[in-house]
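Exam review. A common question shows you a sequence with its C-alpha coordinates and asks you to describe the fold in words. Practice with the pair below. Do the first one on your own.
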Amino acid sequence: MQAEDALRKIIHIDMDAFYASVEQRDDPALRGKPLAVGGSRERGVVMAASYEARPFGVRSAMPAATARRLCPDLVFVKPRFEAYRAVSEQIRAIFARHTEIIEPVALDEAYLDVTENLLGLPTATAVAKAIRAEILESTGLVASAGVSYNKFLAKVASDHRKPNALFVITPAMGPDFVAALPIGRFHGVGPVTEAKMKRLGIHTGADLRAWDLDRLTATFGSAASYYHAVARGIDGRPVRAHRIRKSIGAETTFSDDTAAYDVLAERLAPMIEKVWRSAEAKSMRGRTVTLKLKFSDFTLVTRARSLPAPVADRESLERIGLDLLRGLLPLRRTARLIGIALSGFAADEAGEPAQLGLGL
Protein backbone atom coordinates (compact mmCIF):
# COMPACT_ATOMS: atom_id res chain seq x y z
CA MET A 1 0.00 0.00 0.00
CA GLN A 2 1.34 3.43 -0.92
CA ALA A 3 1.25 6.24 1.61
CA GLU A 4 -1.06 8.38 -0.48
CA ASP A 5 -3.61 5.56 -0.70
CA ALA A 6 -3.96 5.50 3.09
CA LEU A 7 -4.82 9.20 3.10
CA ARG A 8 -7.86 8.85 0.86
CA LYS A 9 -11.46 8.10 1.76
CA ILE A 10 -13.24 6.90 -1.35
CA ILE A 11 -16.87 5.80 -1.75
CA HIS A 12 -18.21 3.99 -4.78
CA ILE A 13 -21.99 4.22 -5.10
CA ASP A 14 -23.78 1.81 -7.43
CA MET A 15 -27.56 1.84 -7.79
CA ASP A 16 -28.97 -1.70 -7.75
CA ALA A 17 -30.45 -2.81 -11.12
CA PHE A 18 -31.05 0.88 -11.77
CA TYR A 19 -33.15 0.99 -14.95
CA ALA A 20 -35.20 -2.04 -13.90
CA SER A 21 -35.66 -0.70 -10.38
CA VAL A 22 -36.98 2.63 -11.69
CA GLU A 23 -39.46 0.76 -13.88
CA GLN A 24 -40.65 -1.41 -10.97
CA ARG A 25 -40.93 1.63 -8.73
CA ASP A 26 -43.05 3.50 -11.25
CA ASP A 27 -45.25 0.55 -12.26
CA PRO A 28 -46.37 -1.63 -9.32
CA ALA A 29 -47.54 -4.32 -11.77
CA LEU A 30 -43.89 -5.02 -12.61
CA ARG A 31 -42.76 -5.58 -9.03
CA GLY A 32 -41.64 -9.08 -8.19
CA LYS A 33 -41.48 -10.09 -11.85
CA PRO A 34 -38.41 -10.97 -13.92
CA LEU A 35 -37.91 -7.78 -15.90
CA ALA A 36 -35.58 -6.61 -18.65
CA VAL A 37 -35.21 -3.07 -19.91
CA GLY A 38 -34.55 -2.90 -23.64
CA GLY A 39 -34.18 -5.78 -26.03
CA SER A 40 -37.44 -5.28 -27.88
CA ARG A 41 -35.84 -4.62 -31.27
CA GLU A 42 -34.14 -7.10 -33.58
CA ARG A 43 -30.56 -7.68 -32.42
CA GLY A 44 -31.48 -5.77 -29.27
CA VAL A 45 -29.69 -6.26 -25.98
CA VAL A 46 -30.75 -6.24 -22.36
CA MET A 47 -29.83 -2.86 -20.88
CA ALA A 48 -30.72 -3.88 -17.33
CA ALA A 49 -32.20 -6.91 -15.61
CA SER A 50 -34.14 -6.99 -12.37
CA TYR A 51 -32.91 -9.18 -9.53
CA GLU A 52 -35.87 -11.50 -10.16
CA ALA A 53 -34.44 -12.18 -13.66
CA ARG A 54 -30.87 -12.84 -12.60
CA PRO A 55 -31.34 -16.37 -11.15
CA PHE A 56 -32.25 -17.40 -14.72
CA GLY A 57 -28.90 -16.09 -15.96
CA VAL A 58 -30.29 -12.90 -17.51
CA ARG A 59 -27.83 -10.01 -17.32
CA SER A 60 -27.14 -6.66 -18.92
CA ALA A 61 -25.53 -6.58 -22.39
CA MET A 62 -27.02 -10.01 -23.18
CA PRO A 63 -28.80 -10.42 -26.54
CA ALA A 64 -32.55 -10.23 -26.03
CA ALA A 65 -33.09 -13.55 -27.83
CA THR A 66 -30.77 -15.28 -25.38
CA ALA A 67 -32.53 -13.69 -22.42
CA ARG A 68 -35.91 -14.87 -23.73
CA ARG A 69 -34.62 -18.43 -24.03
CA LEU A 70 -33.26 -18.39 -20.49
CA CYS A 71 -36.42 -16.88 -19.00
CA PRO A 72 -39.57 -17.37 -21.09
CA ASP A 73 -41.62 -15.30 -18.63
CA LEU A 74 -39.25 -12.35 -18.88
CA VAL A 75 -41.10 -9.03 -19.22
CA PHE A 76 -39.48 -6.49 -21.56
CA VAL A 77 -40.06 -2.76 -21.22
CA LYS A 78 -38.73 0.07 -23.35
CA PRO A 79 -36.13 2.32 -21.73
CA ARG A 80 -37.19 5.76 -20.48
CA PHE A 81 -33.95 7.72 -20.40
CA GLU A 82 -35.62 10.94 -19.30
CA ALA A 83 -36.89 9.16 -16.17
CA TYR A 84 -33.46 7.66 -15.47
CA ARG A 85 -31.73 11.02 -15.94
CA ALA A 86 -34.19 12.68 -13.57
CA VAL A 87 -33.45 10.12 -10.84
CA SER A 88 -29.72 10.41 -11.53
CA GLU A 89 -29.91 14.18 -11.00
CA GLN A 90 -31.64 13.60 -7.65
CA ILE A 91 -28.88 11.22 -6.63
CA ARG A 92 -26.10 13.58 -7.68
CA ALA A 93 -27.70 16.38 -5.71
CA ILE A 94 -27.43 14.13 -2.66
CA PHE A 95 -23.76 13.46 -3.41
CA ALA A 96 -23.13 17.21 -3.70
CA ARG A 97 -24.38 17.78 -0.16
CA HIS A 98 -21.50 15.63 1.09
CA THR A 99 -18.57 16.36 -1.26
CA GLU A 100 -17.57 18.45 -4.24
CA ILE A 101 -15.32 15.70 -5.61
CA ILE A 102 -17.70 13.49 -7.59
CA GLU A 103 -16.72 11.40 -10.60
CA PRO A 104 -19.80 10.05 -12.40
CA VAL A 105 -19.21 6.79 -14.24
CA ALA A 106 -22.77 6.30 -15.50
CA LEU A 107 -26.26 7.48 -14.62
CA ASP A 108 -26.31 4.95 -11.78
CA GLU A 109 -22.71 4.91 -10.61
CA ALA A 110 -20.13 7.35 -9.21
CA TYR A 111 -16.95 7.65 -7.18
CA LEU A 112 -16.85 10.17 -4.35
CA ASP A 113 -13.76 11.46 -2.55
CA VAL A 114 -14.93 12.20 1.01
CA THR A 115 -11.49 12.62 2.52
CA GLU A 116 -12.98 15.89 3.71
CA ASN A 117 -16.78 15.81 3.67
CA LEU A 118 -18.95 18.91 3.70
CA LEU A 119 -21.11 17.89 6.68
CA GLY A 120 -18.19 17.02 8.93
CA LEU A 121 -19.19 13.40 9.49
CA PRO A 122 -16.48 11.46 11.32
CA THR A 123 -15.87 8.62 8.85
CA ALA A 124 -16.41 7.66 5.22
CA THR A 125 -18.63 4.86 6.45
CA ALA A 126 -20.90 7.38 8.14
CA VAL A 127 -21.05 9.39 4.91
CA ALA A 128 -21.94 6.29 2.90
CA LYS A 129 -24.70 5.36 5.36
CA ALA A 130 -26.13 8.87 5.17
CA ILE A 131 -26.05 8.91 1.36
CA ARG A 132 -27.78 5.54 1.07
CA ALA A 133 -30.51 6.62 3.50
CA GLU A 134 -31.05 9.90 1.64
CA ILE A 135 -31.25 8.11 -1.73
CA LEU A 136 -33.87 5.72 -0.37
CA GLU A 137 -35.92 8.53 1.17
CA SER A 138 -35.67 10.78 -1.91
CA THR A 139 -36.12 8.26 -4.71
CA GLY A 140 -37.52 5.08 -3.15
CA LEU A 141 -34.55 3.17 -4.60
CA VAL A 142 -31.72 1.29 -2.94
CA ALA A 143 -28.01 1.75 -3.58
CA SER A 144 -24.99 -0.32 -2.69
CA ALA A 145 -21.87 1.43 -1.45
CA GLY A 146 -18.24 0.45 -1.14
CA VAL A 147 -15.86 2.34 1.11
CA SER A 148 -12.09 2.05 0.91
CA TYR A 149 -8.79 3.89 0.58
CA ASN A 150 -8.65 3.74 -3.22
CA LYS A 151 -10.94 3.53 -6.24
CA PHE A 152 -10.17 -0.08 -7.11
CA LEU A 153 -11.12 -1.40 -3.68
CA ALA A 154 -14.13 0.90 -3.32
CA LYS A 155 -15.48 -0.54 -6.58
CA VAL A 156 -14.84 -4.11 -5.41
CA ALA A 157 -16.47 -3.34 -2.05
CA SER A 158 -19.67 -1.93 -3.57
CA ASP A 159 -20.16 -5.16 -5.52
CA HIS A 160 -19.20 -7.50 -2.68
CA ARG A 161 -22.62 -8.00 -1.07
CA LYS A 162 -25.08 -6.51 -3.55
CA PRO A 163 -27.92 -5.67 -3.57
CA ASN A 164 -28.68 -3.05 -0.93
CA ALA A 165 -25.34 -3.39 0.85
CA LEU A 166 -22.57 -1.36 2.43
CA PHE A 167 -19.11 -2.89 2.68
CA VAL A 168 -15.87 -1.37 3.93
CA ILE A 169 -12.32 -2.43 3.06
CA THR A 170 -9.88 -0.77 5.43
CA PRO A 171 -6.15 -0.32 4.74
CA ALA A 172 -5.44 -3.20 7.14
CA MET A 173 -7.83 -5.47 5.22
CA GLY A 174 -6.83 -4.47 1.70
CA PRO A 175 -3.88 -6.69 0.74
CA ASP A 176 -5.39 -9.89 2.21
CA PHE A 177 -8.80 -9.12 0.71
CA VAL A 178 -7.26 -8.72 -2.74
CA ALA A 179 -5.21 -11.90 -2.32
CA ALA A 180 -8.39 -13.96 -1.89
CA LEU A 181 -10.31 -12.17 -4.66
CA PRO A 182 -11.17 -14.27 -7.75
CA ILE A 183 -9.44 -12.80 -10.76
CA GLY A 184 -12.75 -12.30 -12.56
CA ARG A 185 -13.78 -9.84 -9.83
CA PHE A 186 -10.88 -7.50 -10.67
CA HIS A 187 -12.18 -4.32 -12.30
CA GLY A 188 -10.39 -4.07 -15.63
CA VAL A 189 -10.10 -7.83 -16.16
CA GLY A 190 -12.65 -8.72 -18.83
CA PRO A 191 -13.78 -12.22 -19.85
CA VAL A 192 -11.04 -12.70 -22.46
CA THR A 193 -8.27 -11.58 -20.11
CA GLU A 194 -9.77 -13.65 -17.30
CA ALA A 195 -9.67 -16.75 -19.49
CA LYS A 196 -6.07 -16.01 -20.46
CA MET A 197 -5.03 -15.52 -16.84
CA LYS A 198 -6.67 -18.75 -15.78
CA ARG A 199 -4.83 -20.63 -18.54
CA LEU A 200 -1.64 -19.21 -17.05
CA GLY A 201 -2.60 -20.37 -13.54
CA ILE A 202 -3.76 -16.96 -12.27
CA HIS A 203 -7.03 -17.60 -10.45
CA THR A 204 -6.84 -15.16 -7.51
CA GLY A 205 -5.18 -11.94 -6.47
CA ALA A 206 -2.51 -13.99 -4.70
CA ASP A 207 -1.67 -15.75 -7.95
CA LEU A 208 -1.43 -12.41 -9.74
CA ARG A 209 0.75 -10.97 -6.98
CA ALA A 210 3.24 -13.80 -7.48
CA TRP A 211 4.10 -12.48 -10.96
CA ASP A 212 6.79 -9.80 -11.06
CA LEU A 213 6.39 -6.68 -13.19
CA ASP A 214 8.73 -7.83 -15.96
CA ARG A 215 6.80 -11.08 -16.45
CA LEU A 216 3.47 -9.25 -16.39
CA THR A 217 4.73 -6.74 -18.95
CA ALA A 218 5.92 -9.49 -21.28
CA THR A 219 2.52 -11.19 -21.07
CA PHE A 220 -0.01 -8.34 -20.71
CA GLY A 221 1.76 -5.31 -22.14
CA SER A 222 0.62 -1.86 -21.06
CA ALA A 223 -1.86 -3.21 -18.50
CA ALA A 224 0.93 -4.82 -16.50
CA SER A 225 1.59 -1.88 -14.16
CA TYR A 226 -2.09 -1.71 -13.22
CA TYR A 227 -2.30 -5.46 -12.53
CA HIS A 228 0.93 -5.36 -10.52
CA ALA A 229 -0.36 -2.52 -8.33
CA VAL A 230 -3.93 -3.64 -7.68
CA ALA A 231 -2.79 -7.17 -6.85
CA ARG A 232 -1.12 -5.48 -3.87
CA GLY A 233 -4.13 -3.33 -2.99
CA ILE A 234 -2.55 -0.24 -4.56
CA ASP A 235 -4.38 2.21 -6.84
CA GLY A 236 -3.11 5.76 -7.06
CA ARG A 237 -5.83 7.11 -9.37
CA PRO A 238 -7.61 10.15 -7.91
CA VAL A 239 -11.33 10.76 -8.07
CA ARG A 240 -11.60 13.32 -10.84
CA ALA A 241 -14.48 15.73 -10.45
CA HIS A 242 -13.91 17.13 -13.95
CA ARG A 243 -12.08 15.36 -16.73
CA ILE A 244 -11.24 16.35 -20.26
CA ARG A 245 -12.87 13.72 -22.45
CA LYS A 246 -11.89 13.63 -26.09
CA SER A 247 -13.88 10.48 -26.75
CA ILE A 248 -16.12 7.88 -25.13
CA GLY A 249 -15.52 4.39 -26.44
CA ALA A 250 -15.98 0.70 -25.76
CA GLU A 251 -14.56 -2.41 -27.36
CA THR A 252 -14.62 -6.16 -26.90
CA THR A 253 -12.16 -8.91 -27.81
CA PHE A 254 -13.71 -12.15 -29.03
CA SER A 255 -13.01 -15.63 -27.75
CA ASP A 256 -13.57 -16.82 -31.35
CA ASP A 257 -12.68 -14.76 -34.43
CA THR A 258 -15.34 -14.08 -37.06
CA ALA A 259 -15.94 -12.35 -40.39
CA ALA A 260 -19.75 -12.72 -40.31
CA TYR A 261 -21.71 -9.47 -40.33
CA ASP A 262 -24.55 -10.78 -38.15
CA VAL A 263 -22.11 -11.98 -35.49
CA LEU A 264 -20.12 -8.74 -35.56
CA ALA A 265 -23.32 -6.67 -35.35
CA GLU A 266 -24.49 -8.69 -32.34
CA ARG A 267 -21.14 -8.20 -30.59
CA LEU A 268 -21.16 -4.49 -31.40
CA ALA A 269 -24.61 -3.94 -29.86
CA PRO A 270 -23.51 -4.02 -26.18
CA MET A 271 -20.61 -1.68 -27.00
CA ILE A 272 -23.05 0.80 -28.54
CA GLU A 273 -25.19 0.56 -25.42
CA LYS A 274 -22.19 1.12 -23.15
CA VAL A 275 -21.01 4.18 -25.07
CA TRP A 276 -24.46 5.73 -25.17
CA ARG A 277 -25.06 5.14 -21.45
CA SER A 278 -21.72 6.79 -20.66
CA ALA A 279 -22.53 9.77 -22.89
CA GLU A 280 -25.96 10.09 -21.27
CA ALA A 281 -24.44 9.95 -17.80
CA LYS A 282 -22.03 12.76 -18.62
CA SER A 283 -24.60 14.77 -20.61
CA MET A 284 -22.14 14.79 -23.52
CA ARG A 285 -23.08 14.81 -27.19
CA GLY A 286 -20.59 14.05 -29.95
CA ARG A 287 -20.64 14.54 -33.72
CA THR A 288 -18.15 11.84 -34.76
CA VAL A 289 -18.69 8.08 -34.62
CA THR A 290 -15.66 5.82 -35.09
CA LEU A 291 -15.78 2.07 -35.67
CA LYS A 292 -12.73 -0.05 -34.89
CA LEU A 293 -11.91 -3.58 -36.06
CA LYS A 294 -8.80 -5.55 -35.15
CA PHE A 295 -8.12 -8.61 -37.27
CA SER A 296 -6.73 -12.00 -36.38
CA ASP A 297 -3.26 -10.89 -37.59
CA PHE A 298 -3.56 -7.89 -35.19
CA THR A 299 -3.79 -5.31 -37.95
CA LEU A 300 -6.24 -2.54 -37.16
CA VAL A 301 -8.72 -0.62 -39.29
CA THR A 302 -10.99 2.29 -38.31
CA ARG A 303 -13.81 4.06 -40.09
CA ALA A 304 -15.36 7.32 -38.91
CA ARG A 305 -18.30 9.52 -39.82
CA SER A 306 -18.75 13.12 -38.68
CA LEU A 307 -22.17 14.76 -38.62
CA PRO A 308 -23.08 18.47 -38.80
CA ALA A 309 -24.87 18.12 -35.45
CA PRO A 310 -24.35 15.82 -32.43
CA VAL A 311 -25.70 12.27 -32.56
CA ALA A 312 -29.24 12.61 -31.28
CA ASP A 313 -30.00 9.25 -29.69
CA ARG A 314 -28.90 5.67 -29.20
CA GLU A 315 -30.73 4.50 -32.33
CA SER A 316 -28.78 6.98 -34.45
CA LEU A 317 -25.50 5.82 -32.91
CA GLU A 318 -26.43 2.21 -33.68
CA ARG A 319 -27.46 3.03 -37.26
CA ILE A 320 -24.20 4.86 -37.99
CA GLY A 321 -22.11 2.15 -36.34
CA LEU A 322 -23.76 -0.58 -38.41
CA ASP A 323 -23.42 1.51 -41.58
CA LEU A 324 -19.68 1.83 -40.92
CA LEU A 325 -19.44 -1.91 -40.32
CA ARG A 326 -21.29 -2.72 -43.56
CA GLY A 327 -18.91 -0.41 -45.41
CA LEU A 328 -16.02 -2.73 -44.51
CA LEU A 329 -17.69 -5.82 -45.99
CA PRO A 330 -16.79 -8.28 -47.24
CA LEU A 331 -13.99 -8.92 -44.77
CA ARG A 332 -11.03 -10.79 -46.22
CA ARG A 333 -9.80 -11.72 -42.72
CA THR A 334 -11.52 -12.70 -39.51
CA ALA A 335 -11.81 -10.09 -36.77
CA ARG A 336 -10.84 -10.57 -33.14
CA LEU A 337 -12.01 -7.21 -31.72
CA ILE A 338 -14.71 -4.65 -32.44
CA GLY A 339 -15.24 -1.27 -30.87
CA ILE A 340 -17.07 2.01 -31.26
CA ALA A 341 -16.34 5.52 -30.03
CA LEU A 342 -18.10 8.87 -29.90
CA SER A 343 -16.07 12.08 -30.13
CA GLY A 344 -16.26 15.67 -31.34
CA PHE A 345 -18.00 16.91 -28.20
CA ALA A 346 -19.54 20.36 -28.02
CA ALA A 347 -17.68 21.22 -24.83
CA ASP A 348 -15.02 19.62 -22.66
CA GLU A 349 -14.67 19.84 -18.93
CA ALA A 350 -11.45 20.40 -17.01
CA GLY A 351 -10.42 20.63 -13.42
CA GLU A 352 -8.27 19.09 -10.71
CA PRO A 353 -9.40 17.60 -7.41
CA ALA A 354 -7.62 18.02 -4.12
CA GLN A 355 -7.21 15.52 -1.27
CA LEU A 356 -6.08 15.52 2.34
CA GLY A 357 -5.80 12.75 4.87
CA LEU A 358 -8.18 11.13 7.37
CA GLY A 359 -9.17 7.54 8.22
CA LEU A 360 -12.05 5.48 6.92
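Now try the second one, then compare your answer with the model answer below.
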Amino acid sequence: MKASKYEELRLHYKIWFTDKDDNGILGDGKYKILKAIDETGSLMSACEKLGITYRRTWNDLKSIEKRLGFPLLEKTRGGTDGGSSTLTPEGRKLIRAFDNFHENMDEIMQHHFKVLKHQLLSDE
Protein backbone atom coordinates (compact mmCIF):
# COMPACT_ATOMS: atom_id res chain seq x y z
CA MET A 1 0.00 0.00 0.00
CA LYS A 2 1.48 3.33 -0.98
CA ALA A 3 1.73 6.06 1.64
CA SER A 4 -0.92 8.12 -0.13
CA LYS A 5 -3.39 5.26 0.37
CA TYR A 6 -2.82 5.46 4.14
CA GLU A 7 -4.24 8.98 4.06
CA GLU A 8 -7.52 7.54 2.76
CA LEU A 9 -7.97 5.16 5.71
CA ARG A 10 -11.05 5.73 7.87
CA LEU A 11 -11.78 4.33 11.31
CA HIS A 12 -14.89 2.25 12.08
CA TYR A 13 -15.50 0.22 15.21
CA LYS A 14 -18.28 -1.19 17.34
CA ILE A 15 -18.71 -1.26 21.08
CA TRP A 16 -20.83 -3.78 22.94
CA PHE A 17 -21.16 -5.14 26.45
CA THR A 18 -21.65 -8.79 27.36
CA ASP A 19 -22.48 -10.77 30.46
CA LYS A 20 -19.98 -13.11 32.12
CA ASP A 21 -20.83 -15.81 29.55
CA ASP A 22 -20.17 -13.43 26.62
CA ASN A 23 -23.85 -13.12 25.73
CA GLY A 24 -24.40 -9.72 24.12
CA ILE A 25 -26.36 -7.28 26.25
CA LEU A 26 -25.96 -3.82 24.78
CA GLY A 27 -24.16 -2.49 21.74
CA ASP A 28 -24.52 0.24 19.19
CA GLY A 29 -27.58 -1.37 17.55
CA LYS A 30 -29.60 -1.88 20.73
CA TYR A 31 -28.54 1.55 21.93
CA LYS A 32 -30.00 3.06 18.74
CA ILE A 33 -33.26 1.20 19.38
CA LEU A 34 -33.52 2.48 22.96
CA LYS A 35 -32.63 6.00 21.84
CA ALA A 36 -35.31 5.87 19.10
CA ILE A 37 -37.91 4.65 21.60
CA ASP A 38 -36.99 7.54 23.87
CA GLU A 39 -37.33 10.00 20.97
CA THR A 40 -40.54 8.62 19.45
CA GLY A 41 -42.34 7.40 22.58
CA SER A 42 -43.22 4.15 20.83
CA LEU A 43 -41.52 0.84 20.17
CA MET A 44 -43.47 0.49 16.92
CA SER A 45 -42.45 3.97 15.75
CA ALA A 46 -38.83 3.30 16.71
CA CYS A 47 -38.86 0.06 14.69
CA GLU A 48 -40.36 1.85 11.68
CA LYS A 49 -37.83 4.67 11.97
CA LEU A 50 -34.91 2.21 12.04
CA GLY A 51 -36.37 -0.24 9.51
CA ILE A 52 -36.31 -3.22 11.88
CA THR A 53 -38.91 -5.79 12.85
CA TYR A 54 -41.07 -5.26 15.90
CA ARG A 55 -41.16 -8.90 17.01
CA ARG A 56 -37.40 -9.44 16.96
CA THR A 57 -36.78 -6.08 18.63
CA TRP A 58 -39.32 -6.88 21.35
CA ASN A 59 -37.60 -10.23 21.99
CA ASP A 60 -34.16 -8.57 22.03
CA LEU A 61 -35.30 -5.98 24.56
CA LYS A 62 -36.86 -8.66 26.80
CA SER A 63 -33.56 -10.56 26.64
CA ILE A 64 -31.61 -7.46 27.66
CA GLU A 65 -34.00 -6.82 30.54
CA LYS A 66 -33.59 -10.41 31.73
CA ARG A 67 -29.78 -10.21 31.63
CA LEU A 68 -29.66 -6.82 33.35
CA GLY A 69 -32.33 -7.69 35.91
CA PHE A 70 -34.49 -4.60 35.45
CA PRO A 71 -37.09 -3.31 32.97
CA LEU A 72 -36.05 -0.87 30.26
CA LEU A 73 -39.53 0.04 29.04
CA GLU A 74 -42.79 1.22 30.53
CA LYS A 75 -45.58 0.23 28.15
CA THR A 76 -49.20 1.24 27.79
CA ARG A 77 -51.51 -0.78 25.58
CA GLY A 78 -52.97 0.71 22.44
CA GLY A 79 -56.44 2.10 22.24
CA THR A 80 -58.03 4.81 20.18
CA ASP A 81 -54.89 6.89 20.63
CA GLY A 82 -52.50 3.94 20.22
CA GLY A 83 -50.05 2.58 22.76
CA SER A 84 -46.80 4.01 23.93
CA SER A 85 -43.44 2.87 25.21
CA THR A 86 -41.19 5.04 27.31
CA LEU A 87 -37.88 4.24 28.90
CA THR A 88 -37.82 3.55 32.60
CA PRO A 89 -35.51 5.72 34.70
CA GLU A 90 -32.97 2.87 34.59
CA GLY A 91 -33.37 2.65 30.81
CA ARG A 92 -32.67 6.36 30.45
CA LYS A 93 -29.70 6.08 32.80
CA LEU A 94 -28.34 3.22 30.69
CA ILE A 95 -28.54 5.09 27.38
CA ARG A 96 -27.08 8.26 28.94
CA ALA A 97 -24.16 6.29 30.38
CA PHE A 98 -23.61 4.39 27.10
CA ASP A 99 -23.75 7.65 25.16
CA ASN A 100 -21.15 9.27 27.45
CA PHE A 101 -18.95 6.19 27.33
CA HIS A 102 -19.14 6.10 23.53
CA GLU A 103 -18.30 9.80 23.21
CA ASN A 104 -15.23 9.35 25.43
CA MET A 105 -14.13 6.26 23.50
CA ASP A 106 -14.68 8.06 20.18
CA GLU A 107 -12.21 10.76 21.24
CA ILE A 108 -9.65 8.20 22.39
CA MET A 109 -10.04 6.06 19.27
CA GLN A 110 -9.76 9.06 16.94
CA HIS A 111 -6.62 10.25 18.72
CA HIS A 112 -4.94 6.86 18.50
CA PHE A 113 -6.06 6.43 14.90
CA LYS A 114 -4.29 9.70 14.05
CA VAL A 115 -1.17 8.36 15.80
CA LEU A 116 -1.40 5.15 13.76
CA LYS A 117 -1.76 7.05 10.49
CA HIS A 118 1.16 9.28 11.42
CA GLN A 119 3.29 6.18 12.02
CA LEU A 120 2.25 4.70 8.69
CA LEU A 121 2.98 7.92 6.83
CA SER A 122 6.32 8.62 8.49
CA ASP A 123 9.60 7.74 6.80
CA GLU A 124 10.83 5.51 9.64
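Model answer, second protein: The domain at 17-121 is CATH 1.10.10.10 (Arc Repressor Mutant, subunit A). The chain has a mean pLDDT of 90. Full marks require stating both points clearly.
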